[in-house]
Automatic annotation (TrEMBL):
Gene3D superfamilies in alphabetical order: 1.10.8.1310, Ypt/Rab-GAP domain of gyp1p, domain 3
Single GO MF descriptor: GTPase activator activity
InterPro entries according to UniProt: Rab-GAP-TBC_dom (IPR000195), Rab-GAP_TBC_sf (IPR035969), TBC20/Gyp8-like (IPR045913)
Protein known as: TBC domain-containingprotein
Organism: Purpureocillium lavendulum
Domain of life of the native organism: Eukaryota
The Rab-GAP TBC domain, residue ranges: 67-256
Pfam family name, one: RabGAP-TBC
Length: 408
């Protein structure tokens, strides 16, 4: 494995020979007059990687062009996700047995179906044989992570995320980086229920209500599921240009997971006039779900960051309903999250599973009591529900029994 120091040293000496360099993910073509700024930023990224300075990397990711190119991303991304430096005793401690010898994961059949539909837009100029090789590598990456951490649940769109990491990172880093991303940054999407994902989406209308009340009222009848594909896949399902999605990944890895919601809110607000001209609900649903092509990503990121500063997530009404074990709360500080272990992530996963079961139990109790409601006993039922909820919270072993009773 190329060492982290080698990667950053390669980045430091790397220079573009062309007269005009297009920054990865930026709509700005940098000509000769900008070479000095590009060179200076490259040096700053390399220095931040050498010192593992996450605040500086966040600032650099937000600025024009992000991490500039894949050479620098190979140095920066593992650091943002908390991978220890090569040579650190912890670096290889979690990888012992060959993943191919581990039991099959329950979702591998779906992985095969999705991988067969991958690499539609990028990489470009590949032969059929080369694309098939890419698909084999992508399948191996996904299956390795799922087999090593079998409690994770695969979701459609996960392959879109892994595809980007596979193209950017060198093979020895891929599974380690994707594992930390899966368990510590997008864990909510890999639970055995869509409940936590839905809870994240509920933040979007709250944010729009604060930032643009008129626009929010206009789309009030539309559920926020139009943002699902974008936020679920870190926009890898929506963005067709490789340099654009790599640029977006720079900022998503450098900032808290909830930032994807702010980006989608900003995209919607940037299309304000178009959306306000549409009254038909079905058409609104289609338009809202579409992420425009050829966006000025640097401007979008800057506006989204400003939106975050004006309306932090804890000022949104639905924030209180987000589980304390959700990545939106446990990974809110990227530096703190980078120090978390995969074992800690597993503990959060189990807590979220308990929260999901508890929410399901409450829903079943309410539905059952509603079926057998009696108006004259309304007050008594309310007290009974509260008492029962408190008792079950203190006696979690009864939850499974109650669940089977109320599901009859």
């Amino acid at each position: 494995m190329a060492s982290e120091a080698k990667v950053v040293d390669e980045a430091l000496v790397r220079r573009d020979d062309s007269a005009s360099t297009r920054l990865s993910g930026s709509s700005v073509a940098w000509d000769d007059n900008h070479d000095s700024r590009v060179s200076q930023k490259r040096t700053e990224i390399v220095d931040a990687c050498k010192s593992r300075d996450i605040p500086s990397l966040r600032s650099l990711a937000e600025s024009t062009g992000g991490f500039l190119d894949d050479t620098l991303r190979r140095a920066a991304w593992p650091i943002l996700l908390g991978l220890p430096p090569p040579g650190d005793a912890a670096n290889g401690s979690a990888v012992k047995e060959d993943w191919k010898d581990l039991p099959r994961h329950r979702d591998e059949e779906q992985v095969d179906l999705d991988v067969n539909r991958s690499f539609v837009y990028y990489p470009n100029g590949q032969s059929e044989a080369q694309l098939e090789q890419c698909k084999l590598q992508l399948s191996s990456l996904i299956v390795e992570v799922l087999r090593r951490y079998p409690y994770l649940c695969y979701f459609q769109g996960y392959h879109d995320i892994c595809q980007v990491f596979m193209l950017v990172l060198e093979p020895p880093w891929r599974a380690k980086v994707v594992a930390r991303l899966s368990i510590l940054r997008i864990r909510d999407f890999m639970l055995p229920s869509l409940g936590p994902t839905t809870s994240q989406l509920r933040l979007l209308p709250d944010l729009l209500a604060k930032a643009d009340p008129k626009l929010r009222r206009h789309i009030a009848t539309i559920e926020p599921f139009y943002a699902l594909a974008g936020t679920l896949t870190m926009y890898a399902h929506n963005i067709e240009a490789y340099h654009d999605i790599a640029r977006l990944f720079d900022i998503f890895l450098a900032r808290e997971p909830v930032f994807t919601i702010y980006v989608f809110a900003q995209i919607v607000m940037d299309r304000r006039d178009e959306i306000l001209d549409i009254d038909e609900p079905d058409m609104l649903q289609v338009v809202l779900a579409k992420v425009p092509r050829n966006m000025d990503l640097d401007a979008l990121i800057a506006r989204s960051a400003g939106l975050f500063d004006r309306y932090p997530p804890d000022t949104l009404r639905s924030w209180r309903y987000i589980s304390s074990a959700s990545v939106l709360k446990t990974a809110r500080d990227v530096g703190v999250c980078a120090k978390q272990t995969l074992e800690e992530g597993h503990v959060y996963f189990r807590q979220q599973v308990k929260d999901i079961r508890w929410a399901d139990m409450q829903d079943r109790i309410k539905m059952t009591l509603w079926r057998y409601r009696r108006p004259v006993r309304t007050f008594g039922i309310a007290i009974a529900v509260a008492a029962l909820a408190f008792y079950l919270r203190r006696n979690p072993t009864l939850v499974h029994y109650m669940a089977s009773f109320f599901s009859k």
